[in-house]
Amino acid sequence: MSSILYDVAGPRTRRRTAIWSIVGALFVLGLLYLAYRQLDSRDQWDPERWQVFTDPPMGQTAEDVWRSLLVTGLGATARAAGIAAVIALTAGVLLAVLRMSASRWVSWPTTTVIEFFRGLPVVLLMFFGVIAIGLPIFWGVVFGLAVYNSAIFAEILRAGIVSLPKGQSEASYAIGLSRWQTLFTVLLPQAVRRMLPSLISQLVVLLKDTSLGFIIGYAELLRRLQTNTQFFGQRYWFQFFVVGAAIYIAVNFTLSRLAVYLEKRGTKKAAGGVARADQAQIPGTTATGMAGGADV
C-alpha cells in the first residue's frame, strides 16, 4: 500500500522510527539537563538575579528596565524593520517586473543587480550606507535591510509568477489585455497570494537582521540588552539573554502565525466557496434539471 508521494512504512520501519525518536528525545533531554546543571552551578537560577526585572538595583525601577527593552529597544527594532520592509517590498515588486521584461536590455541588468545584492552580507550594506553614502546610523540600517531584502523579495515574487499556469497569461491576452496589464492585474496578485508564506518568512528574517545594526551602533533591542548588562553587571547576562530571546521568539512567532492565517484566508478567498451539488442550478433549468418551459 502506498500514498501519493511515498510508500507507507511497514511495522518494522514504524518500530525503528519510534525507537530512534525515543533515543533522540532522550538525547535532547540529556543535553537540556546538562545545560540546566551547568547554569545551576553558577547560580543562574537564583531568584535574586531575576529580581533585576521586578526590583532592580542601582536606583532603577522595573519600569525603567522594561521601558528600555520594550519601548526603546523593541521600538527601534520595529521602526527600522517596518520602514525597511515597506521599501524592500516596493523595490522587490519593481525588480521582479523588470527582470521579467521581454527586453533583454532591461531584464539582464536587473538580473545582475538582483544577484549582486543577494550575494552581499547585510552588515556590509549597512556599513556602505553609513560610511560611503554618509547616512545616519538609523538610515544606514534601513538601507542595508531594504537593499538586500528587495532582491530576495524580487526572487520570491518571480518564482510565484513563473509557477502559475501558462493558461493564465494566454487567457489574459485572449481578452485583449496587454503584457503589463496581465502582469499587474492577473499574475502578480496570484503570485503574492501563493508566495505569501515565503514573504512573511522573509519578513521574519528581516526583523531578526535588525540586530546586525548593533555592530554599527544602532540602539535596537540587542544593543539595549548589552547596555543593561553592562549597567547592572555581567552577573545578569543570562537573565537578559533569556528575556531578549523570549521577546524575539514572541514577535517572530506572531509573524509566523500571521502568515498561516493569511494563507488560510487567501485560500478561502481564492476558492470563493463551493456550492453543494443539490443546491447548484443551471440557468434556464428547473429544480428537476429539465429545461424550464419545455413540455415533456
Q: In this structure, how is the largest beta sheet organized?
A: none
Structural domains: how many: 2
Secondary-structure-based class equals: mainly alpha
State which percent range the strand residues make up: under 5%
- Evaluate the radius of gyration: 27 Å
Shape: globular
Organism: Jiangella rhizosphaerae
Family: Belongs to the binding-protein-dependent transport system permease family.
Subcellular location: Cell membrane
Keywords: Cell membrane, Membrane, Transmembrane, Transmembrane helix, Transport
Short description:
Pfam families: BPD_transp_1. With 296 residues, this protein is an all-alpha fold.
List the helices and strands and how they pair.
Blueprint: H1 11-41, H2 47-50, H3 62-99, H4 104-118, H5 122-132, H6 137-162, H7 166-174, H8 179-194, H9 196-209, H10 221-232, H11 237-271
Helix pairs in contact: 3-4, 3-6, 3-10, 4-6, 5-6, 6-8, 6-9, 7-8, 9-11, 10-11
Please describe what this structure looks like.
By secondary structure, the chain is mostly helical. The chain has 2 domains: 11-41; 65-294, MetI-like (MetI-like fold), CATH 1.10.3720.10. The protein has 11 helices and no strands. The chain has helices at 11-41, 47-50, 62-99, 104-118, 122-132, 137-162, 166-174, 179-194, 196-209, 221-232, 237-271. Helix 3 packs antiparallel against helix 4, helix 4 crosses helix 6 (137-162) and helix 5 packs across helix 6 (137-162). The longest helix has 38 residues, at 62-99. The two termini are 50 Å apart. Residues 271-296 have low confidence and may be disordered. It is found in: Cell membrane. Keywords: Cell membrane, Membrane, Transmembrane, Transmembrane helix, Transport.
